[in-house]
Write the structure tokens for this entry.
Amino acid sequence: MSGQLSGKRLLITGAAQGMGRGIALEAARQGAESVVVHDVQRDSAEETAELVREQGALASVVVADLREAAAISRMVDESVAFAGGLDTLVNNAGVIDTSFLHPSGFDTLDEATWDIVMDVNLKAVWLATRAAAPHLRASDRGPSIVNSASVAGVHGTVSAMAYGASKAGVIQLTKSCAVALAPDIRVNAYLPGSIDTPMAQGHLASGDDRRRTAQRMTGTQLMPRFGSVNEVAQVACFLASDAASFVTGGIYPVDGGTLAWRGVQDS
Ligand SMILES: NC(=O)c1ccc[n+]([C@@H]2O[C@H](COP(=O)([O-])OP(=O)(O)OC[C@H]3O[C@@H](n4cnc5c(N)ncnc54)[C@H](O)[C@@H]3O)[C@@H](O)[C@H]2O)c1
């Protein structure tokens, strides 16, 4: 199938739902040869894989917990065995403090939450990158890594302190990996603002006052609404494509303009 991602073999972490699923489907629409759908949730991952196949790409599911280093190595090995190689690693999976803490904030943040957020959001990105690098180096199909960071990795976030710190780490890791893997493998990251996914809905429900929480999440954007999964998937797929062949070490907001100013929209 022709398209911007024609012939590419992708591994997308956390692709059972939300942005990971959106990127998987958009990659297939853009002509990817195959998509490995990774997650801890098998049933939803199988649904994503079926949707990918309906778009004309090959698809397989790998179930692995990103908190376990051995599982991450196995995830990469199984992906390569299925697809016959690897051209794109999308480090999408993530978790946020508010999924574990009620209320979530400076006084309630505990070590267990800090550790799981750091392990999934940051350490796993490094481990997956390390495991994938030899396979990406062997690719002659424009290999690259695309990382999901967040605007929360740039500005302060009291209810998601571990999350913000982990995403700041992803931004830094992206740049270091771009340097380390150049010129063979491009490495970029995008920074979503508030995007309508199960994670964002959970965060919205975690506040006492849903309207105020929504205002906090979207009121700092120049476009005061939730972004859609596809609006992020378009950018992720561009970064994975050969159209971005001179783009590496870049950090790209997909945030409705949050990081462009210091303001809050009138409600
Ligand atoms: N939704 C937003 O507003 C927003 C904003 C900025 C950044 N992000 C980032 O975008 C990425 C995708 O977010 P989303 O909103 O689609 O999230 P989501 O919660 O809807 O999906 C995340 C996926 O990661 C998987 N996952 C979680 N822990 C895992 C583990 N230990 N092992 C394997 N898989 C695991 C989940 O099962 C889930 O399918 C995340 O990195 C997130 O931090 C989201």
The chain has eight helices and seven strands. Helices lie at 18-29, 42-54, 69-83, 111-137, 161-181, 198-206, 210-218, 229-240. The mean pLDDT is 96.
